[in-house]
Fold each of these.
Amino acid sequence: MAYEKVNELNLKDTELRLGLPGTEQVKEEQDVSCVRSNKRQLQSDNEEESTTPPTKTQIVGWPPVRSYRKNNNNNNNNNNNNNNNNSVSYVKVSMDGAPYLRKIDLKTYKNYPELLKALENMFKFTIGEYCEREGYKGSEVVPTYEDKDGDWMLVGDVPWDMFSSSCKRLRIMKGSDALALDSAL
Amino acid sequence: MSEDEEDQSPPPSDLRSQQQQQRPPCSPNKSRNCISSSSQTFPDHVLENVLENVLQFLESRTDRNAASLVCKLWWKVEGLTRSEVFIGNCYALSPTRLTQRFKRVRSLLLKGKPRFADFNLMPPDWGANFAPWVSTMAKAYPWLEKVDLKRIFVSDDDLALLAHSFPGFKELILVCCEGFGTSGIAVVANKCRKLKVLDLIESEVTDDEVDWISCFPEDVTCLESLAFDCVEAPINFKALEALVIRSPFLRKLRLNRFVSLEEVHRLLLGAPQLTSLGTGSFKHDNQSEQEQEPDYAAAFRACKSVVCLSGFRELMPEYLPAILPVCANLTSLNFSYANISPDMFKPIIHTCHKLQVFWALDSICDEGLQAVAATCKELRELRIFPFDPREDSEGPVSELGLQAISEGCRKLESVLYFCQRMTNAALIAMSHNCPELTVFRLCIMGRHRPDHVTGKAMDEGFGAIVKNCKKLTRLAVSGLLTDQAFRYMGEYGKLIRTLSVAFAGDSDMALRHVLEGCPRLQKLEIRDSPFGDVALRSGMHRYYNMRFVWMSACSLSMGCCKDVARAMPNLVVEVIGSDDDDENREFVETLYMYRSLDGPRKDAPQFVTIL
């Protein structure tokens, strides 16, 4: 993820991450926008991306890797092993521009309004009304989440139960990113 | 490891019509007395016995299929002597037909769902149930010994029926299956006293919280192979240790990630005769009370016979060197569940001179692949999986790794390679360097990606592969491909049996080239490509000679699919719906069609329409 450098402090050092120390460092430096929703083109300094179409939605079943294998990769690097733990369901929450990641327990919320209110309080933003057709129109931020299959979705698209069991992490997108995401959906 | 089997397809099994046209040389009206001096012919039953004694030596499926076409008698006797039956599509015939044709089956290999179901392209509960097969066989084949299932839905009840019905049962192999749990496994473990092989491979096994390891009988077992690495449930290690000790024939053991490194260490010390080992979790428990760390390397050193190593889930890379004592003997190494960096990897691979099969994650980078190329001159099979399987992930391997492999591993036969960047030049090089290639599957993860150096389509690269690799039977393509690539496939891919296409081609002509040019094509799976009705119609002369055709997110109209179904009565044409049930959809979401001797299946779910 691209983090802002505030007062020349590299706030990546204070990022809360799951994973063994020392891993993924190289990846991080080159990794500019991979975690961004793949509904958007990668940045243009990546020369091999220049011929791809402007917006890509995440495609079902592509690349063709069996979920058994994908789950194994998750197990390997997730020391907390959220998948098997039924009592709490922590997910990381990040907001574009915010220096720190937060963790919340999804199980403490019963529905979307509660979750969104908590997020608003946590990150001090206001979110617009969600409606099925137009997403979060008129809002400066758009809450998105990554589900079990690695797809980035708009928070609110699926019923709450389905969301809370499949949500792996949350990302609050803002500004132009948000609008692009909304219009692509 | 799970591998897609390269099977030899039988000729179309419309045997009944063919038989009726032939006059058998031995007519049933002949005298049943002993040989008379004037007649040169033998009585039927003698001939049958002779045939039986001869035909029982035929092992190959294709040989047997050929023999069964000679005449009615040969057909009958071959049916009596075939002990191993392969069914590539469980819906191609009914279980009843199987038991009527073959009377003394000892071993069944059955395949169910099409491969694209693995990638969520098919809703769950589509079918491929084991239940009708096991219940029919329970009555017909009391001496059944082996069942090998792939992509089949198996319930605990099915497993229980199996365990109770076949007293001599020896081998159960479940690959990419689902529907059962540890309770079903427990019944098999307990009731199948002659069990030699229990292999659960890449299957979904629910945790019923049953201590199935303790369910094996108390006395010495016949176990030769036990694989449960896909079982996501803790096991009773004491019971496992005891089981291993009382299994003197055990050669292959694949543990799941709930077995710690210390426990693996203990098992190895007690089972030095192992030839194939799948380690459990490969990390050291730092909180353990022992003051001294166990000497893991010593345990591996004691296993002089290990030639196949896999597992390494939850790897702590600093413990990897413990396997060094066995590396020089390894013919097969599977690191594909371990995120290993090049620096950790290189010292290991430099000792693996005998390696023939190597699976890994792309975390070893092009650098790691170069090390493989430098050392593993005997390599036959390479599979590189993506650590980060997303379309826009970084992709640490590229054409450099593949090129190095092609230069170093000239005996290569099978490649599966996930990457983000590739060039035609590397594929052309591989096509020249590796003439033994039979399987070539390249997945450039970003869709429609061209050669990243020249910017051109990947046509020439894949063209070279089909042209120069004269033994190629299986091909999976990706990247930016025009109709030209398919023209090459049709022109040169004369031995291709399995073809996978995704996001490729420009027009119907592409598919036409393949359907008209590849006479051995058996399995065709296509997704998200602009192929329509004209292309589908152009293959009608082929569909009875193929096992199946899958086309999803293409440009097929319902009308055309109906036409095909009408024109080909022995073809089952399934249209699988998508989420929106719009009757006016222009194109069919998924077409899955296959030949069948017994007509459309009766167990199709709501979302499947059989035309």
Amino acid sequence: MSSNSFAYNEQSGGGEATELGQEATSTISPSGAFGLFSSDLKKNEDLKQMLESTKDSAKLDAMKRIVGMIAKGKNASELFPAVVKNVASKNIEIKKLVYVYLVRYAEEQQDLALLSISTFQRALKDPNQLIRASALRVLSSIRVPIIVPIMMLAIKEASADLSPYVRKNAAHAIQKLYSLDPEQKEMLIEVIEKLLKDKSTLVAGSVVMAFEEVCPDRIDLIHKNYRKLCNLLVDVEEWGQVVIIHMLTRYARTQFVSPWKEDDGLEDNEKNFYESDDEQKEKTDQRKKPYTMDPDHRLLIRNTKPLLQSRNAAVVMAVAQLYWHISPKSEVGIISKSLVRLLRSNREVQYIVLQNIATMSIQRKGMFEPYLKSFYVRSTDPTMIKTLKLEILTNLANEANISTLLREFQTYVKSQDKQFAAATIQTIGRCATNISEVTDTCLNGLVCLLSNRDEIVVAESVVVIKKLLQMQPAQHGEIIKHMAKLLDSITVPVARASILWLIGENCERVPKIAPDVLRKMAKSFTSEDDLVKLQILNLGAKLYLTNSRQTKLLTQYILNLGKYDQNYDIRDRTRFIRQLIVPNEKSGALSKYAKKIFLAQKPAPLLESPFKVDRDHFQLGTLSHTLNTKATGYLELSNWPEVAPDPSVRNVEVIELAKEWTPAGKAKKENPAKKFYSESEEEEDSSDSSSDSESESGSASGEQDEGDSSDDSSEESSSEHGSDSESASEVGDKRTAKRNSKSKGKSADSSSEEESSSDSESESESESESESRKVTKEKEKKKTKQDRNPLTKDVSLLDLDDFNPVSTPVALPTPALSPSLIADLEGLNLSTSSSVISVNTPVFVPVKTHVLLHRMSGRGLAAHYFFPRQPCIFGDKMVSVQITLNNTTDRKIENIHIGGKKLPMGMQMHVFNPIESLEPEGSITVSMGIDFCDSTQTASFQLCTKDDCFNVNIQPPVGELLLPVAMSEKDFKKEQGMLTGMNETSTVIIAAPQNFTPSVILQKVVNVANVGVVPSGQDNIHRFAAKTVHSGSLMLVTVELKEGSTAQLIINTERTVIGSVLLRELKPVLSQG
Amino acid sequence: MIHSLFLINSSGDIFLEKHWKSVVSRSVCDYFFEAQERATEAENVPPVIPTPHHYLLSVYRHKIFFVAVIQTEVPPLFVIEFLHRVVDTFQDYFGVCSEPVIKDNVVVVYEVLEEMLDNGFPLATESNILKELIKPPTILRTVVNTITGMEKGETHRELPSWLPTGQLSSGALAKDWIDAIIDKSGSTITAEIQGVIDACVKLTGMPDLTLSFMNPRLLDDVSFHPCVRFKRWESERILSFIPPDGNFRLLSYHVSAQNLVAIPVYVKHNISFRDSSSLGRFEITVGPKQTMGKTIEGVIVTSQMPKGVLNMSLTPSQGTHTFDPVTKMLSWDVGKINPQKLPSLKGTMSLQAGASKPDENPTINLQFKIQQLAISGLKVNRLDMYGEKYKPFKGIKYMTKAGKFQVRT
């Protein structure tokens, strides 16, 4: 292999050399060209040799030099074969550099790059998450179209990885693959959809970025994740925050109605001003309907607020634009302080922020007025910053602050930066027009500037004065006279032209001066600038019309000069004027109106900000806004919808479920306790209480009314169901029985089978049947009895890995429960674990049900799942999951079963037996077991009916991966002592004292996680113990109350990942009221 | 997002390039050079330059342009902030961020850049995480940058010197900056105080620190390091955080504007140009004002003289001064101010013959430092550690510095 590639190189090198030689022969001596080239070749040759070497140090040196070449932009592609061989190097340093090289050159050397793929594929399976992540990164960065399917596969796998870091990299890879092959869009959207559901803050930013790049229009993918994103936002890394906030801004503009109508601030004032009262009334009538903000809208605004305090300017700006675009006008004010804070940052940040402030300050002066002084210009600011600050100061100027501002402007005018001084003069002019009170002051100030030494300043002043005078002519004869004098000294054409124009316009007000000026100008006409010449012509024409006695000859002289000017514009103008004003036989009726034409009232110009060119229709904080042109990929911010789209799309299933589930579960009353206790949910609904459980209930609890329970069982509709569930539960039985005797278990099994058939035959028989079974199942019953009585000790000793009863189970309040429930309980008792849940205090844990398949997406088939918190009957490493299937259609759904499974490595699943048919409005609950391998990875599988297949996932909350363990305080302390250091995670919780009562803590902890209570000798310490289902590692939870309203939460476990996840989940629950 | 990055030195050489997506030819920088030419001064190069197919976003620091190439819409601050983060990281790694240093460490630079961005999207930007992934070069770390007048954001290095080495310790340095504009007559036009608390934490385990202030109300506007729990600050005005290792900026604050700012120095100046003669008079004196009995150190006076000034012949009563006839920059390194004997700088300026006198007198920029004093009056009440059993060394220092302190004359 090595020699091969070597040869390849030489060959190609030689080939190129000869080519070059051929080209060179005609001009330079071939040997010279050759020598030059070969020396270059030699240099790389030595690198190649180093790469071939067996020493890592030599390889590393070579790689470092190569990376140096890449950094300098030199071509190192020639070395590809030599480098790519080292991709599998054991040395991590070398490997990293090889990766750098590969990513740079793979695109150019596609075939050779393929050699490296298998290495990455192997690394993708590495147990180390960093290696997996980097392999995915490099693999997806190799822009070789052939490997698209491999990349797709890798992304799919990585998106279900245990490590959030790997999943984050998967999200990045999505964009890379998309840019390589846009055809993959649909598949990638699926992955995005899946990753959007991810709860890790590490992933959120990256996946939203991928969303923005691949499918920004698929806003429907966001609905379900909207609230989660809002809530996670504060904890996401800063770059992700920026992306998410921008995306949510767009989202909010499409999903909520405008909050601006109610408290229309300044913006609408102007408009209303012009509207007639009636119109106004109409408008308010329309708005009469009180506006209430969607809680989700509020949630976004509330949750972004803390981010104004971010140290990252981009985040602050993102929040600012969010407030600007979606919050009620009255609340926008809070962003100004933070934006002003950014002004103390680097010049580039200042530049962007000032631009945005400038746009905002045009629309809403009030926001930044308190910070006026922050926009004062420093002599050290770069010019672009100065101009922007000036712009903002102008926008903020009003009657109250104008005098301070003008004083400040005076300093600026004197600035050594003349460009800036000129801009200041423009600004003064704008202030003068905007605020009529100061027009005169400004004008006087500007006139003073006319005697400035600097020409640019003077010229700018003249131009501005001209504009100002035009707005209010009359009474300014003095100024015009002053300016006429300036003509002797000033040389800037624009200024001269302006003065001439002014004199021409006002020639009747300065009758003595005007002809004199014309005389002077006639003298210098030939040497003037074109711009000035035109104005001289104009002046002459105007004077000719008003004062022809004095100026007739002068004007004719000028017109003659103009006739032979080099510039055609001037010749043109001359001809035009001559025709118009000098009466001759040819001139038509028009010359009569010449005076009207030349001395018409001209509208005053508007002094507008050079900045205000509709920048405001771009979303703030975007590149497009900065450039004031639409940048590639700019996403328009839509207008608020008139009517808000259905807000319920954002509801996360749990709420919906309660409604939907109720009518379907007709066979059962909603009894959370029951849900909780019923271990094998196959027995739920009509198919429940097989004779097996009946018999147990009958025999075990004497007080049980046998008739009742058999009545219950008579509801059973189809014998199939019975036998199905029977056998399923039997497995559990078997397991229990195994320890006693295998044969016994088997016989029990067979007996139950017989029984189930007989059961369906006649109900009355079932009682006797169960009687007879007593004999065969003697052993088990004994156990059940023990269970019912507080004698769990031996059981737990026997079956420690199976069930973990809490040390002191309390007798169940049996009579209060419905008979069918009792029956259920009895069924459970067989596997001896119902007592497990009966933690010391009768705390009921409400069952959290999750949607597996929504009825809309399931074409009428709805599925929900929950974790019954029982040891699983299918395998002791499995978590039991109960699935309730509802048929919401009006026809039968047949053959419901589980199709293909897509499980992460190591994960196993025990499926329920196919359900033959489900009646309309019918509902059935089945039980499954999933071995999650102690991870919160999602189990994906297909739920199939006769006609369809639906992809569904189950993701376990971390608290459900546990089983309670009974333990004494002493044992607890001992175990805890062994699980310190790395195995310990802790946090401090702050909450109101009423949340720290023992019962509240107990309830909260048990709600979150399936743990057992450890009796505690101290009042201020609560202990809980559990073990993980798969590995059986202990999980010890301690809540230690401290003085004040704090508590320490400690978790000790070998499984630190689960431990920290649990810690994270427990913390907010315990700290909230 | 970010396609490529080019580093360009002041003479217009591209000395490093890095691409995160497919390669963008370096000829794209020609547009940048054009803009640079137009801007005449480096400071004036616009941070955002559109070109037909790309957008160039740049920051200018340490005499190096960091030019990022963008292809699609992106919040410009996102890129700019990131580029600044890159510079900060280099500085953290190498002590200084300069062309020779980057060239010498090109491999580390490359690896760091590789980790910081993936496909143009930031991946790891925290310097403590980066340092775990890529080891900083060790020899250079010892060469500590001693250049005075460092940029504001980069003065972390003042910290560790007074913290005991080889011991579990946590220290914080509260630094106030006074930004002020003083007008001709000596009255204050604007003055505000902002500051930061830089922390240096060398603790093992998962220490949970809380820092409380005697007078948190002083703080008007704050921004936090991401480790700070915002809720806690909102409700109790306490900084509660699990610190990352090493140096980091815990908090930046702005002191509310209602409080009058005590200006610790004054400048007496007498600068006059005369129309007729080609000589001008120049005299400035610096003195302490409200210093709460502390000494003002590290005083440096700089001033950009008008173009008409050809040369200056000055004698300082203490310190050294330089005048660069090309850039017209006057700089006077005063050192400490002794209240008994105020430092002054007197002399004459020779002006261009025949030219009219400049309209504006030069603005004087002042730098100074006051140890052991936070001019804002901010005081840390206590620093507590939870979650770990050992007793660490704890320390807090205060300092006041001049930010953008200008005196108009």
